[in-house]
Amino acid sequence: MRDALGREINYLRLSITDRCNLRCRYCMPAGGIPLSAHSALLRYEELLRVARAAAALGIDRFKVTGGEPLVRRGCTDFIRALKAVSGVRQVTLTTNGLLLPPLLDELCQAGLDSVNISLDTLDNAQYQRITRRMHTADDVLAAVRQCAGRLPTRINAVLLPETADQLISLARLAEQLPVDVRFIEHMPIGGRKALSAASSSVLDRLRTVWPTLAPFGERRGNGPARYYSTPALQGYIGLIQAVSHSFCADCNRVRLTSTGILKPCLCYPQGTDLKPLLRGGAAENALSTAIEQAVWAKPAAHCFTRTQYPAEQRSMNQIGG
Questions:
Q1: Domain total for the chain?
Q2: Is there a domain that residue 47 lies in?
Q3: Where are the alpha helices (H) located in the chain, listed in sequence order?
Q4: Least-confidence region, from 75-79, 131-135, 200-204, 257-261
């Protein structure tokens, strides 16, 4: 399926909840936010209905997100059912990792293809300050170690001013384990300004330790990360530079919020509400048409650097991480 600009859209991020067991300061306001009523969240059968319609249109890659998706009961059964949908080629998961270890066997048996684990720092005290909870980075590392070698595993680290000294330590995880480590520019979502942590110097700093770090020519994963490799690492280093190096011309994704809003672009507040169709007895062709129209209207580029445009005011847990 292609949008009006000819971009192939083959990737759908499905948020299954706005709940999370962390309160990361770049994701949620300090005072918290009202959570959606359970009745407002799409039921699993409704999410699968969207997935079937999307797969029939050519979307064959799905990312299960939240909030924290593993806080929703039945997540592993949903992944199993999603993987069984005709036309679905790949199902992956983004998680903070804290609930992952006891579910890992079940997720592997369900057919999960890979996992992204969020970890911004290896300093336990700093982790608690960022997440506003008493879990530790060591807790997340335990999950990373259990996943490495069993599933393709990527670590997602948001670049923050206070974690600048963690860059090398985090990258060394790709030296110690068969995992990819990806550094992500913070995006000004939810009415926040982008946190100032330049990604432009990341490669220079990494090359002080791994001088032969070079661009990796092949595509890895379904997202916009640019990967770098060196024989000294078991895994790869990725950079996701959504603000400073727009990848909009090659964007292949849309996302569905847990309440049923199909968003063609993360940056803008606009989206298509699929819930009335899902709960109003609409025919399958009506759902397919709504998805096609939303994809066709996908904006040419984000507006993160253009203050005159209205940016998304909802927090990331409400949109889908």
A1: 1
A2: yes
A3: 44-56, 75-83, 104-110, 124-131, 137-147, 167-171, 173-176, 202-206, 275-279, 284-296, 316-319
A4: 200-204
